[in-house]
């Protein structure tokens, strides 16, 4: 039932085949430093996604502080969640140019700045800019590298590794809900937000742990060395040798196919060598020119790699199963986010605050979410189990719970449904695995950036829509029903498109035989 990139006959030109002759893998693949990457990603999920899952606490504080409508106030949380994911394709560009480590460190600084500036908010639109946009972009710059690095470092235990790292979302939602509730009670929401901004600076340390793999190690992850991959490695090493030759004074440029800007740099440095023999005045300017030229080459190469994933013959959108995956993502995420944002208000509406204060429903989702990710990851890594089938079953369970939740008015029944929501939403740990199976490791950053961008649009529009429906009907029932039905539409796309694609593959040899 699962259609991987081999099943659908889709090729990005990397020439890699799973059944190719294996070579000796890097020790850090599926072990060694790979587990430090999992630890780093785990803390990123605690500080980024966990904090966002706890925004229901701040949402209630903002309602009391600014006395605005629920729909308008919910936009603050939605912007933060949505922008974190929507910027995914553009963060893919940063990763192509700067690498995961640099991108994550810059994101950690920006995220902390957004939290700290939000402590001085005087109105809701101010929070749109600081908390929604600034902190949201910073979160996105850390989140995508954390997921991509785990995908690069693991092959045999990908689902388990992604499951362990993304359990940080569940731990974070549980810990951050308790922490923000305590800080808001003891110090007020402004000081709570300021303290959270200081804590978020730890994202920079998480980014520093993201040691990049060499292109050779990435290919060794699959145990293959394709001819096209060898050509790419030769081209990269050739470019690196060109950069080193800039320091060899008086050396002539021997290869005609080198980039023109590096040829110019070599000639300028050759002239500068003679000038240094006479005087050392131009050395500083030459170093700056060299750095600028190398930066230009890096940016051009990164932009070319990024743009090729979206446009042209090798575009990701020529993969129809991937397109169906994107359509699913447009509807899926809001169904998970809406309960987290509006459950505190639903509890108040049903007069269940006393029971909820003992054990919050959002904490139940968060705790079971942890076990769901790990258990689903272990099951998916079993050789006899299809990751795609596990992914679909979890989706069916989650959408059923979303459609059933408005019918429950007792704390026990709501707690059971929240536990099921938490467990089934563990499929989030399988999303990078499914994406990588569809497009390969080389395109994972850009492909997963598109997926989380679609998730971000869903998260951005979902909670305000639920708040708007509540302002009209004074109930959240219809918002759950509508989001659940849209979610079901996305699941139908996931079911239909792989079947159509596989039927075409079966019919294609028959047509060629008849011709």
From TrEMBL:
Region (Disordered): 224-279
Keywords (A to Z) from UniProt: Membrane, Transmembrane, Transmembrane helix
InterPro entries: MFS (IPR011701), MFS_dom (IPR020846), MFS_trans_sf (IPR036259), Proton-linked_MCT (IPR050327)
GO molecular function, one term: monocarboxylic acid transmembrane transporter activity
Transmembrane segments: 33-55, 75-95, 102-120, 126-148, 160-180, 192-210, 321-341, 361-379, 386-405, 411-434, 446-466, 478-496
CDD domains: MFS_MCT14
A Pfam family: MFS_1
Subcellular location: Membrane
Membrane topology recorded in Swiss-Prot or TrEMBL: Multi-pass membrane protein
Chief location: membrane
Domain Major facilitator superfamily (MFS) profile, chain residue ranges per copy: 37-502
Listed GO CC annotations: membrane
Gene3D superfamilies noted in UniProt: MFS general substrate transporter like domains
Protein name as annotated: MOT14 protein
Species for this entry: Centropus unirufus
